[in-house]
Amino acid sequence: MECPVENRTKIVGDKFPDSGIPVSESGKGHSNTMSTTQPIVERAMFPLVPRMTTVVEITQLTPKMRRFVLQGEDLRSFESRDADDHMKLVFPAEGQAEPVLPQVTDQGLKLPDGAVPPQRRDFTPRLFDAATGTLTVDFYLHGSGPAGNWAESATIGSKLGVLGPRGSKVVTGGVDVYLLVGDETALPSIARRLEELPAGQKAIAIVEVDNPAEEQEIETKADVQLTWLHRNGAAPGTTNLLEDAIRALPKPEGTVYTLVGGEATSLRPIRAYMKEAGYDPALTSFSGHWKRGVSDHDHHEEV
Prior knowledge:
Elements lengths: L5 E7 L27 E6 L4 E13 L2 E7 L15 E4 L12 E3 L2 E3 L9 E4 L3 E3 L4 E7 L4 H9 L5 E5 L3 E6 L4 E6 L4 H10 L5 E8 L13 E8 L10 H8 L7 E8 H14 L6 E7 L13
Parallel strand pairs: 13-14, 13-16, 14-15, 16-17
Antiparallel strand pairs: 1-15, 2-12, 3-4, 3-11, 4-10, 5-8, 5-11, 6-7, 9-10
Helix pairs in contact: 3-4
């Protein structure tokens, strides 16, 4: 679907030459500080613990993005070591004050006898503060489904269950440029990663949102080229804004670690192009956070 393209690019940090990132095409600039080592990717696994939490703070970040801060004794053992982690949020059934959580048994997690399986959805841990025992989660208000309905009606004191994360994929060293791409559903992960990157780390972020009112201020010590793409009323998942932006981006020089998230179908041509353009598939991750017409899309499904 064609829609008016409106882009806004900002540079965060002061170490970018010209447009920011050294790129591989001749005449586009080069860097003398490219990494000589490959990044190390390790998987850390955690026990899958059911946790009951209570909403203690609600903030309206943008017209369509609402932040919830959760707290509970069960969060003391919570772990999340990477911005691309995901956890299952467990929602109360209609008419219930709190969700029914599975119990830990010798045969794994099991619901109490007679319990109706609750609705669950995958979310990114936006921030976990171990000192205060609080977990922050950002909800995109899309107007339907158990997550959207809960976010529209939840108040201080509302209950929410948490399962996971089951593990983290931790990347250390060897990355010259982080390339982060996605729509609103990927924004919590993108924003968290930018906030956690160290000073001087180069990153390119391309984020699709509905309009300028949906842009967020992101604090980071990294040197970031951040581009906002606006659908301007087009339905999510119906444009080629992200694909066009990736195709127009000169491939950065050096070792590029790429994370792309959003509507599953729209990511397929992006994946095909990046393979064609020579991005390292071992350092490229795609996550279909949602899929048009599918109510509970499995984000593990290959894009």
